[in-house]
Amino acid sequence: MENSRNTNQDSANRRSFLRTGTLGAGAVLGLGVLPKVAADEDGDSPALTRGDVAILTFLSALEQVEADLWIQYAELGGATKQGLSPIDFQLNGKAIQTGLSAGYVAALQVLDGDMPQYIADNTDDEISHHRFLNNYLMSKGAQPIDLSRFAVLPPSRVTGVPQNGRLTNLQRLTIDTTWWTRYRSANANPDFGGSFENAVPDLAKTPHPAIPVTDADAVLNADGTIPDRVQAIASTAGFHFGFIEQGGSSLYPVLAQKASSLEVLRVLLSIGGSEIMHFQTWQDKAGNAPNITVGDLTFPNLNNGADPNTGAAGAADEFQTNLIMPEPTLFLNAQLGLVSIIRPISTQQGGAVASVVSFTKDGLFLDPTTGKNTGIVDVLMELAEAADNAKRTT
Questions:
Q1: Where are the alpha helices (DSSP H) in 169-227?
Q2: Residue 344, preceding bond cis, omega within 30 degrees?
Q3: What share of residues in the chain are helix, strand, coil (percent, to 5)?
Q4: Which class for 313: exposed (0-12), middle (13-18), buried (19 or more C-beta within 10 A)?
Q5: pLDDT tens digits, residue range 198-238?
Q6: pTM assigned to the model
């Protein structure tokens, strides 16, 4: 159930956090960035409402962000062949070279031998989502969204990686892994005020790289074995994959509840389903991260029955790696009993603004050279507020 208390104040507090790193009052943003929609002249299908356009525009923008980060993962750790066929990624007519860091690929394959293929597939999917949503907007007389002007963040310097600016930073991430315990909890739901512990506490404490920044970051030992420092980078990526895709698993059903057009609803349910498939895959693979310690980062043994946050025994069901199916939990009304669901699905916990806040806390838009977020945050927040404020009409 959605907590609707003082929604305007919640939005202001989130905006303040994005600028200052602390929660407080913030300036209200306008809607000037939101494209206007024209009437459907052909009459083949109903014109979109302003709310539908806001939803689709925000989702297309966020899919562009996700495409950017997945391209970086694919460049370094993606498959070079799909069975007998080559991987032929393209973005804006330019080929994307994949699997450029052999040591990183090897470390990712510790999580699963097919990790490079899954990375390539997820990348392809996110590119297709952004492209389709823009094409759909244009087919309805609305403007597409393009955030390329914010592609100013430095890429990896691994040999072969194009040195053009990026929308996202994968070099210093502070990763929330509470999604792990959220889906294993039998009696807590964030929409009912539930709180959850991190599966890898150190990832949430201080920033760590999820990609090799230089060739030296992914050098294997002389005997071909994988150094712990290289494995730690790949395992960080593994948990980051789950973090990114669990957000989409909630976001699409949240915004689907606000869609007026049945066709827009169909679009959101169809794309949202693929995000859930992504999340399920990555949750399974992250659990294979080896128990290692590198500096201030420990990947705990999640199968020893101990809480990695406190060391207390008796926490098996909250952390066990093979419990990847959503545990039944509270939904709508506690009197209805427990049910296995995607969660959260409230605007406050899983909506557009919540997604932008989550990505910003993750460090995705942080310029490692300045320690500040890029201007993309303000634009995404404005689009997010418009999406969250959409109202379903009949």
A1: 178-182, 201-205
A2: yes
A3: 45, 5, 45
A4: exposed
A5: 999 999 999 999 999 999 999 999 999 999 999 999 999 99
A6: 0.89
